[in-house]
């Protein structure tokens, strides 16, 4: 559906305003769909993001600062997210043996198993990206990279 129909606005200041509104609207739309899908797994988007970062680090531990650097949502409180994941036994926290000021965060087998189960969701399907060809997805990636450069 076109952005004009979604937000019931037919006139925009210019194509740049329309593109901006379209990106913001689509970003929120994607987040809502993901949140609904993740709810049945008992995790939020930021928690899922942290788990994926930790899986990428595995078997090496991560620090809160590493998580903050790599998180998609830079406004998220990584320490609080780790607290919640630890309460769910999806991650562990231990003091670093070589630097007592640092806390090592490691994904547990339960966390790895949950991500494996969630991998079956098929990101393209629930995000709507399956409506794009691979070529269109590559063009979209290039355009979004260009916006941020």
From TrEMBL:
The keyword Ribonucleoprotein does not apply. It comes from the Bacteria. Keywords: DNA-binding, Transcription, Transcription regulation. It holds the Pfam family MarR_2. One of its GO terms (biological process) is response to stress. InterPro entries: HTH_MarR-typ, MarR/SlyA-like, Tscrpt_reg_MarR-type_CS, WH-like_DNA-bd_sf, WH_DNA-bd_sf. This is MarR family transcriptional regulator.
